Amino acid sequence: MSASTSVKREPDQVFNMFGVKDAEKSFRLEFIDKNRGRPLFLIRFEQLKNIKLNEFLEMVPEYIVKVSAENAKFKYYILGDARILLFGIASDDELGSPLPNIDAAIGRLHDEALKKNQFDFDFGVGRTQCNYISDIDEIFAELDRSAMKNLKDNLVRWSWTYLNRANDYFATEEANAVIQPIIHYDIRKQTYSMKGGEVFVGGQLYQSYFELMSDIPDDQDLNRIELLILEKLVMACREAPGLLKFNISPQTLLDTFDSAEKAYRFKELLTRQKLAPDNIRLELIEKPYEEKETKLKDVCRYFWQFGISFAADDFGVKSQSHQVVLDLGEMIKEFKLDPISFKFKAEEDHTKFLDNLAFIDYCIRLADNREAIITAEAVDDFDTLRFLIAHQVYHFQANMFCGKMAIHEYKSLYKEMQDLPESAVNDILGNQETFIQQKEIGNIYKLARQLKLY
Known about the structure:
Layout: E1 2-3, E2 13-16, H1 23-31, E3 39-49, H2 53-66, E4 74-80, E5 84-91, H3 102-115, E6 120-129, H4 136-170, E7 177-186, E8 191-201, H5 206-215, H6 222-236, E9 243-248, H7 250-256, H8 260-272, E10 280-284, H9 296-304, E11 309-315, H10 321-328, E12 332-337, H11 340-343, H12 350-370, E13 373-376, H13 382-390, E14 395-396, E15 405-406, H14 407-413, E16 420-421, H15 422-429, H16 432-441, H17 444-450
Parallel strand pairs: 2-4, 8-9, 9-10, 10-11, 11-12, 12-13, 13-14
Antiparallel strand pairs: 1-2, 3-5, 3-6, 4-5, 7-8, 7-14, 7-15, 8-16
């Protein structure tokens, strides 16, 4: 049962129970009964991935050696497999050297492996001052229970570590949020005005935000992180005018706001930031969700009673958001049209053109029934803009008018980006020379003033 290993200190021993008859009984006898009166540690490893078991078992004693007294000696006892592995440690030092910090040793191994993207595992550490009174089963049960509890505590702590990283990301003094403005065409006044926009993570940290999100394991609480981002964006929008829209998944709403009290807390956050709930719209992004006892409609109604409305994001012919629209009814105040619904031109594909024309008419009827608006996304050319207006779509996200801007810039320019005459827009976007100028300047309202069209 005893075996030598490549661990640096020669006297250290490894007792490997793999393949031994009555392995668990042998593990308890060797680990507990033969070490009565000595402090014992039991490490519970779970879900060992991307490394061979024998390689991992050589690493563990090496890391324990790093945090131990120079002449300390240990015996190691092993039971299980890569799914669940019990790793017992007993002092073999008659001199009574200080005990090693097992948590720190295994924690270092865990962190270094993740940082280098080498392998992964979960762990928990149990410990007891082994005595002569308790029997073997009692001592083992206590070690196993405390190791399991520590493992669960670690899983919670690690999940919050990712949240803390997200917190750190947003903790800078600069409000790293940007807004993609929404432009509204007023058919009566024949003018274009900025009415608000979609708020999201931006600034120079936009790329590192994606790195942060892609770094978070799939089994972590992504909904909690999504909520954290929503809160931070709301805070970045303090005193911002116009309609502010925030993306959120239906599942996050269901999981996080399962009571009216929690929705009220969100409303209070808006109030503290001097934001009117009537000017807040939650865009329900197209992600699958699972309803259990709480229904999405009931959760959304908590917000609705405070004046917060909803948008169906990426609404298209084959979109899953149709179900959300049916469920939420009057609470949907905006349909965000997928570009595919208006990009086809008659001369390119007549059938698709007619299909999408019919879909736009369908959206208009839906919007009229709910007193809602239709917003066309990714409007990048003058022909599409004119096509939309001709078919009674009057709200759009259009980089032709202005691109994404920082929240502080949006606040300062909001009043200046109103009531631009249609004639000025036609002059600028309809002329190749001024259209190139507009691309360089990036704000059609500024260029119109420079050209004295406004």
